[in-house]
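Hi P.,

Sorry for the delay on this. The queue was packed all week, but I finally got your sequence through. Input first:
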Amino acid sequence: MTEQSIAAPVAERRPFTRTHHGDSVDDPYEWLRDKEDPAVISHLEAENAYTDARTAHLEDLREQLFQEVKGRVLETDLSVPTRRGQWWYYGRTVEGAQYGIQCRTAAADDDWTPPELEPGVPVPGEQILLDGNVEAEGLDFFSMGSFDISEDGTRMLWSVDSSGDELYAVHVRDLGTGEAFDDVIENTGQAFFTPDGTGIVYTTRDEAWRPDTLWLHRIGTPSSEDVSLFHEPDERFWLGGGITRSRKYLVIEMGSKITSETHLVDLSDVTAPPQVVWPRRDGVEYEVDHAVIDGEDVLFVLHNDGALDFELVAVSAADPRGERRVVLPHTPGRRIIEIDCFRDFATVEYRRDGLGRIALMDYATSALDEVSFDEPLSSSWFGGNPEWHAPWLRMGFTSYVTPSTVLDLDPVSGERIVRKQQQVLGDYDPAEYGQRRLWATADDGTQVPISLVWKHSFGDPGAEIRPVHLYGYGSYETPMDPGFSVMRLSMLDRGVVFAIAHVRGGGEMGRGWYDDGKMLTKRNSFTDFVACARHLVDSGVTRPDLMVAEGGSAGGLLMGAVVNLAPELFGGVLAEVPFVDALTSILDPSLPLTVVEWDEWGDPLHDPEVYAYMKSYTPYENVRSDVAYPPILAVTSLNDTRVLYVEPAKWVARLREVGADALLKCEMVAGHGGVSGRYNAWRERAFELAWVLDRMGLAG
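Then the structure:
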């Protein structure tokens, strides 16, 4: 029996019609939404069996790809320790173990140089805090959520999702005795200790999976006695919390896609009424951090009130709605992303010319001292800096060809010390690989950036036709920044050029770039991607039968839309947890996360213009019978609460109606991020990349 002769599952057509704004739509596959229906599970299992049969010839390649990544990764490894209080905290992995192990060792009072840890060498005084492999025993799925240590270092909390639905159970352990407390808080989101370590602040979700309430649990008391600190009734807003690095305030943040509001609680009394910084105004976003300058409590507020790419101001903590002092003025083209306050300075992250930047900001002068790196396409960030004051500042750096690197920066002298670089086993040499940026012209004349990475030995892109793996996302102002991937090397070493189309709707080029690819301009994301694909063909980098497109989640919507617009441009499409039945989902406020998404996509339930616009592009509604589709692989998870499995299941059924060669792979115990465990994740990615290579003719 040949691969093509295997019969595909045929989903039953059941009558169902929805009507909105006078428009009636037949949807015969909507019944697949009910995962409690045994017929639905049977259908998904049949789809998996069909996909397994159709891809059985790739088994050896999948194993080869898995062994390649395994052979490049230092399986027994340790992270660079981070100092918090009187301890150095670090993580380690062990060969053969799926999950990480959290550890610590004591720090000397005046020693801020992290200990140099060697894989496989015992760490003096090591205390194992949490072994994920032990916690995962007996579970089909295991995902860590929150992890926190009390200020005095005596207690630890961690949370676990055991199904993939992103509802976590919080546990607490006494680090002196190693014994767990009886306290277990179920169905939480975020969780962290109060500064005195006697309480846990955590969030819970409403029926639409939206974090809506912040609670205080006192350790040793029943959960039924937990106190609600704040409830957000508006269904458009997510709620979250945290503690300022100064340990002065509990920060309560509420945000929709376009509006935010922050409340502060002085931690001298965590149950005191929260005080609003700026009352919410539709379309105004802001975030807050706390500093002490000349003995006065100051709030730095990063906002977009009349400032498209954001402005930074300082206000008095005692009167936050009073006088605003402009610290970093709004500068078109410089999108300020974040500010983090320390005792003597602040760090600032911003974007300019399509790339992220980091800098130190002097409190006295507001001057920015940018921390730059030599590579033209790179990413850098600050992270792992829990202390209010420390002599070193932890940061990271990577590029498409440079493995992730951890550095410490002296904020006074500017000295940098490389603490660790991701080790790539074998003979990896970054000089053997190239990276550069091209620009495609969109339908409206906009210049859209494309990032390329390749191996030099196969010739530079454009010198001869090469297979291209073209990735895209383009939503939520999320940039696809340069980053290193061990798994990607297996593609590059086979002659594949990896490319990213930085389409509108993402955050690469500032807030305007995002605004031009959302709501009633969402089509720009799709036409930008098509323009990038055409540019790669027209400039001689590749040809359509050698180009495979990939995107996940909202990027899966991108995949479904572009394959409807220009199916002739691609030799295959890989759509991961794809948002391909967008209109149906956004029309139903009872579904998880629907209402909060209206500020991103529009509200088709109440606005007929938005309804008509979304109906014109949503992939499931627009499958065509007049074109030949390239092969399509859709990957999903049964317990995904962000993009429900039913969307790709319906999409694949409709694609098959018009003769498309579409496969569906559904993980039956996983969530939005796929399977748990690093080895499982490598095998899942090997499955996908083997299919991509097969579409390029490189499976042999």
